[in-house]
Design goal:
293 residues, binds NADPH dihydro-nicotinamide-adenine-dinucleotide phosphate, Rossmann fold, single chain, 7-stranded parallel beta sheet, alpha/beta, binds ligand LOHRUJSQ
């Protein structure tokens, strides 16, 4: 399948495991040889593409999420293709569970080389209507959960005197994504944190970067109304949605030696959506609709 032409299907969102097993990549097949990578959100739409790509480049993937069944199904498909992968169920919002996760991985593999935080999400709602519980759910998942993963990984790298590298999947925060202000707040926090610790942790030989996807068609889109989803491909000058593979290859660039001199950066993969286009996750209010067009 050509890299830049993902079929727009109505029956299913994103790429299947069979497609991910074969998707063409520009990376050498040993680019991540023998690296151990912890990947949160590994069974989600973007995480799954990262899992397949990284494993195909030689890494052992430890995929993390709350749903053991989804994780096991993924790792079975991967190991059946001769790839190295294991599943570890954990809620990233539970700092103790995150500590146990990293203890287990270090005990099993004796090392961790990289952490990709792809677990996250939000629900669309006008900010004025956010409940305290809803606000906290989004901040806890996207900011606190990501931070527990980052800090726990970094402590292990420091204590084991090993280098490390972190890639956080965020959203594009440079202009509004209307209807998900809680997530923009949380992800802006992650970007700020990443820039700060990129400096603090440079002496520990730990690199920290973010990838900010634009409209990437995955099953995560099911939380949005069909009319909102239908408009996402027109939210950038390329007038189409991106593929999870585009995000996975950006992560591979940052996580492998190709990114060796990159830290504190946010790599935007949005088809130019920062420069042109707008995204209304809750529908465009009449106020903004030009009645003359
Ligand atoms: C440039 C173009 C961009 C286009 C796309 C837009 C950008 C981003 C896209 C994506 O990120 S897509 C992929 C991400 N995946 C998801 O977002 C997954 C779906 N989301 C969730 O699972 C939740 O939103 C969550 C908060 C991330 C999960 O947390 P948790 O499991 O704890 O939540 P819940 O128990 O379901 O709910 C807790 C609490 O939150 C409030 N709430 C939840 N959903 C809604 C809703 N639809 N409307 C209003 N409020 C909601 C509510 O207070 C819930 O508590 P209860 O009422 O259930 O007691
Ligand atoms: N798709 C898109 O257009 C865009 C996506 N993004 C971001 O990219 C990331 C990945 O998105 P995508 O793959 O599309 O989303 P998905 O919803 O498909 O995947 C998200 C994954 O996160 C896991 N997860 C959620 N909460 C937790 C938690 N508390 N602990 C552990 N795991 C959790 C879920 O697994 P489980 O339910 O098993 O826990 C799920 O597999 C998200 O942060 C998303 O917001 C950003 C911009 C655009």
């Amino acid at each position: 399948m050509a890299d830049d032409h993902m079929p727009q299907r109505s029956d299913r969102l994103g790429l299947t495991d069979d497609e991910l097993a074969l998707h063409r990549t520009v990376f050498a097949s040993d680019a991540l040889k023998d690296m151990v990578i912890v990947l949160s959100g590994g069974a989600g739409g973007i995480g799954r593409a990262i899992a397949w790509l990284f494993a195909r480049l030689g890494a052992h993937l430890v995929v993390v999420g709350r749903n053991q069944g989804k994780l096991s199904a993924l790792t079975s498909n991967m190991t059946a293709k001769g790839l190295q992968a294991s599943a570890c169920a954990a809620d990233i919002r539970d700092a103790d569970a995150v500590a146990r996760l990293f203890d287990t991985v270090w005990q099993t593999h004796g090392r961790v080389d990289g952490l990709i935080n792809s677990a996250g999400g939000q629900f669309p709602q006008p900010a004025i209507d956010f409940s305290v519980k809803g606000w906290n759910a989004v901040i806890d998942t996207n900011l606190n959960g990501t931070w527990y993963m980052m800090q726990t990984a970094a402590r292990h790298w420091r204590d084991n005197k090993q280098p490390g590298n972190i890639v956080n999947i965020v959203v594009v925060t440079t202009h509004g994504l209307y209807g998900i202000a809680h997530s923009i707040a949380a992800r802006s926090g992650v970007i700020g944190l990443s820039r700060s610790v990129a400096v603090e942790w440079a002496p520990l030989n730990i690199r920290v970067n973010c990838v900010a996807p634009g409209a990437i068609e995955t099953e995560g889109w099911n939380v949005y109304a069909p009319e909102a989803r239908a408009a996402y491909p027109r939210s950038n000058p390329m007038m189409r949605a991106g593929s999870p593979w585009n995000v996975a290859e950006a992560c591979a660039y940052l996580a492998s030696p190709s990114g060796a001199f990159v830290t504190g950066e946010t790599l935007t993969v949005d088809g130019g959506g920062q420069l042109w286009g707008e995204t209304w996750t809750t529908g465009k209010p009449a106020y903004f609709i030009d009645k003359d067009t």
